Amino acid sequence: MNRREINLHGMLLTVEEFLIDNQSSFANKPAILSCMATLKEKNAGIESLSQAQAISTKADFLIKGDDKKSLIDTAIKISDGMKGHAAATQDTRLKVEAEISRWDMNRMRENDLVIRLKRLHEVALPLATYLLESGISQAEIDSLDTNSDKLMKTNPAIQNVKAKTTQATAEMGQTVVDTNNMLRDTLDPLMLQFKTLNATLYGEYQNARKIIDRPAGYSKKEVEVQTK
Is the overall model pTM greater than 0.85, yes or no? Predict the structure, then answer.
């Protein structure tokens, strides 16, 4: 929500509290009670959307970064083992297949990185016995394949979370505006009768309908509810 929507939501909560506190005064006013029920429902919905909007992908990015680093570390270890075996056997083809650097992997697009790691895995598999002599386990070789797949699945998951938070933000802002319009178009006219019936109650309602504006860098001030 932007600052105006946040301020509006604060006012909506204040109006809901006012209506609940004075519910007995509206016992024979079904239209007002209906507005109160709608307002409670809308405020609950805004709160739910707020929780959805607050979900962060920061942790997911950190975990993904750690997983990628671990995968590259393993690839370098296996690459070094393959290079050693290529030198011992004078295998030029294996030497070329094993040639991979951390610098290159860190700068590759993820799709290209996964293709390269899977190729490294494919070449390393038949050499598992020899690589074991260099301290490289079968599990580490297999991880080039399985963890590459895991890395590729991370992006869609993160994008899905971002899409949901973006949608929640949009829905939340629109719900706040729509609810304020409902008060302006329906509840405000219904409350006019209390200017005569109960001037004190009407004054309290007017106070509840004020928006507390808290612009950054300024002291807070009260402004009358916007009508347009």
Answer: no
